[in-house]
Amino acid sequence: MIAISNLMGPSKEGKGSARWAKAGQWLFLGAIFFYLYAPIAVLVVNSFNQSKYGHNWKGFTWKWYEKLLNNQNLMDAFWHSIAIGLLAATFATLLGTLMAYALYRYNFTLKRVTSGMLFVVMMSPDIVLAITFLVIFMALGIHLGFWSLLIAHITFCLPFVVITVYARLNDFDGNLIEAARDLGASEARTFFTVVMPMSMPAIVSGWLLSFTLSLDDVIVSSFVTGPSYEILPIRVFSMVRVGVSPEVNALATGLLILSVVLVVVAQLILRKGKSQ
Amino acid sequence: MNKLLAASAILASNLAFAGDKVVVYNWSEYIDESVVEQFTEETGIEVEYATFDSNEVMYSKLKLQQGKGYDIVVPSTYYVSKMSREGLLQPIDKSKLSNFGNLNVDLLNKDYDKGNQYSVPYFWGSTAISYDADSIEAGTITSWKDLWNQQWEGKLLLTDDVREVFHMALRINGHSGNTRNPEEIKQAYETLKSLIPNVLVFNSEAPREPFLSGDVSVGMNWNGEVYMAQQEGANLEYVYPTEGAVFWVDSLVIPKGAENVDNAHKFINFLLKADVARANAEYVGYATPNQAAIPLLSDEVRNNPAVFPSQEDINNGEFHHDIGDEASQLMNEYWQKLKTGM
Amino acid sequence: MNFRRLIISVTLAWLTVFVFLPHLLLVGTSVMTPNPDHLVVWPVTLDSFEKVFTPLYFSVFWHSLELAAIATVICLMLAYPFAWILSTFNSRTQALLLFLLILPFWTNSLIRTYAIKILLGKKGLVNATMINLGIIDEPIQLLYTEFAVIFGLVYLLLPFMVLPLYSSFDKMDKSLLEAGRDLGAGTVQRFRHIILPLTMPGIVSGSLIVFLPAMGMFYIADLLGGAKNLLLGNVVKNLFLVARDWPMGAAFSVIMMLMMALMLLLYVQANRLVSRKGGLHDSNL
Any CB–CB contact under 8 A between B339 and chain C? Predict the structure, then answer.
C-alpha cells in the first residue's frame, strides 16, 4: 500500500513532498466529489428556495413540499415507483437467491447457459434490454402496465442478486449443508433453515441493490409502461421537459433522505448479520 | 422478508385501486389543473392524466395498445382523420353532450371529420414566431424567412413537430403546407437543411421554457405558450409571419378500446361548459372554439392578438389537413435526417 | 416435485421466457419487413441492416459512437486516479468514500439530469460563477450543446467506471511493485509494466460498463442536447415509439449486442493476458 502512494510522487522523496502528494490526492478526490454533489446540492437548496427559478436565494419556504404533496399525479407516480421497487426487489431477491443456490449446489444441463443468460442481462445496455422486453410483451400479448413493468424490473435485477448471493455461498463452508442433509433435513428444509439464514447479509444487499436499480431505472421503464400504471421517471420526464418544477427538487430531496436512512438501516442489519 | 412482502402487497393493492375513473391522454400543458379537480369533486370520477408532446408519439402509443388504455385523447386535425380511418376511434354520442351547442359552428363539420362523428374541438391555435422583445428590436423578424438569417446561428428553437416545421418551409417556397407532392416536400427538406445550423433546440413539451430560462430568444412557438410566458412575466412578442402562420384544431376523441366510455362523455361535456372552457382558455392561452365562453373571457385575453388572431392573419395562414400516409412517411424520413443535422 | 427440480426449472423457465426468447425475438424482428399496421410482416429481409449503412443512419451511429467514446475516455481519466488513490486508504475510509460515491444513485438519474440542466442554463450557476470570476463577460451557451451531453454522460456514468477499477487496484498484488522498485524500475516503468497491465481488466470492464450504455441514454440528449438525434438511444427510441419501424430499431439493437459481445471478448483476452503476465513477472522477478 505504501508503495502505491509513493508512486504518486518521485520514488525517493522526503517527508515534505509526501505530504504534498497526499494533499494533492485529497484535492483530486474533493474535486470529484464536488462534481458529483454540486448538482444535488443545488436541488436540495432550491427545494427550500422561495424563487421558482432558483437562480438566486429568495428566502426559505416549505411551499414546494406542500405543492408536491398536493400534486396527486406526481404522488401517485411516486407510490407506484416505490411499489414496483419493493415488489421487484423482493421477487428478484427470492428468485435470485434460489438461482444462486441452484448454480452453487447442483449440476445440471444448461448450467452454463443459465449463467450466460444472467451475464447477458447484466451487461446488455438498458436500451437493448428495454427493446427485448417490449418485443416479448407484444408477442405474448401482455398489456403494458403494472405486470410488464414488474416482470421487466425483476428480470434486470436478477443477475445482481445472483452474483451477490453466489459469492456469499462460495465463501461459506459447504460441509454445513452436507451436515444438515446427513441429519435428515430435506433439500428444501436445508435451504430455508441453513442456507438462507447464513446468506442473509448477501440477500439483504441483493435486495437493496435491486431496489436501487429499480428506482433509478429510466430507460427500460419508458418502454414497458402503459397508461394504467405511470411511474416516477415517466412523470418526471415530462415535468422537467415542461420547465422548472420546484416540486421535483422537493421530491429529489425526499428521495435522498429516504435512501440515506435506508442505507443506514441496511448497514445495521448487515453488521448484525456479521457479528452473529 | 415476509413482512416486506406483505407490506408491498398492501401497497400495491391500494394503488391498483380501480374506482370510477377516466384516463385522459393530452398534450402537455394543455389544461387548467384546477378544472380537473373540479370535475372529480362534482362527479366523483377520478381523472388519470398522462401527457404527450407530439401527435406521432400519441399515435404510436395508442397503436401499440391497440386503442386500449385511454378514454380520451387529443389529436390534431390530420390525426383525427387518420385514426378514424384506421378504426382506432369510436363515434361520440352527442346526445350525451348537452353542451355541444356551445361550440362555434365555423369549427364544426370540417373535412377531417364530417358531421363531427368522432371528434369534438378542444382548442384551436397557431404556430408562428416568437422573440424576446427585450433583446431583439421590433421589426427584425416579420417572416419565416427571417429565421434563416445567419445571425441566429445556434440560437433557434423549433417545435418538435414534423408537420409544422415542413409547413414553414413549404410556405416559404410558395407551396401549400398540406402538399402531397414529393418534389415539393423534397424541396422543403433542402430549404430546411440550411436552417439546421441555426437550430439550438427542438421542443414541443413547452416551447416557452427555453425562452423563460434565457437559453433561447427567438424561434417557432405556439400562441398559447407565448401567452403563458407573458403571464409569467416574460416580454415575448408573437409574430404572424408574412408567408402565413400554421393553424390547427385539436380535438377530443374517444379511442376504440376505451374502457370508461360513459365517463369520457361526461368529461367531454364538462369541458364544453362555458365557464370551464373559459378557465381553460385563460390558463393555456389558446383560442377556444367555445362560443359561449368568449363573452366570459377577460378583455385582456379576448383582445390579445396572440390568443385570438385577426381575420387577416387567419386568411393569410393555412389550416392543417391530412396529407395521407405516403407523404407523411416521406416527411418523417426527411425529418429524422434533419434532426441528425443532415 | 422435489426442491432441486423445482428451483432448477423455475430458474430455467424464467430466464428462457424473459431473457432468451426476447433476445431471439429481437434478432428475428430485425430481419422482418416493417409494416405500419402489423408492426412486422414477412418476408425475411436484410434491408434494415443495409439501411444502417446508409449515410443517414451511419452518421448517427458514428456520431453516437464518438460521443460515447469521448465520455468513456473522460470517465476513465477521472476514475483511474480516483480508484488508485482510493485503494491506498485504510479500509474504513475506503468504505466511506465508496458509499459517498454511490449515494447519488438513490436519486433517480433523470432527476440528476434535471439538476445538471439547471446548472448549465444561461442563468445557471456555472455561468454565474464564471461571470463572477471574470472568466467571461456574457453567459455562454452550455445547455443544448454536445458539451452538455458529454457532461451529463460523464456525470451519470463515472461511478460505474470507478467501481471495477477500484476492484482491480484492490486486488493488485502490491509486493510486485515493491519488487519492481527493488529491482530499480522507475515510476514510469513500474506504471507501464506492472500497474497498467494488472489494472487492464478493470479498465476494459469499466469501459464496457460505460461505453455502450452511454450510447443508449436518450434522455440525456433529450434534456441536455435539445432533442436532436445525438445518441443511438434517441434513434432507437424514435424508431420504436414514433416511426414504428421495429425491424430497423431491432437491427440497431442487434448491432449493439454484437458490439457488446466483441468487447466481452476483449475483456476475456485482457484477463488472460493479466494472468499470464502476472506469471511472467513472477518468474522474472
Answer: yes
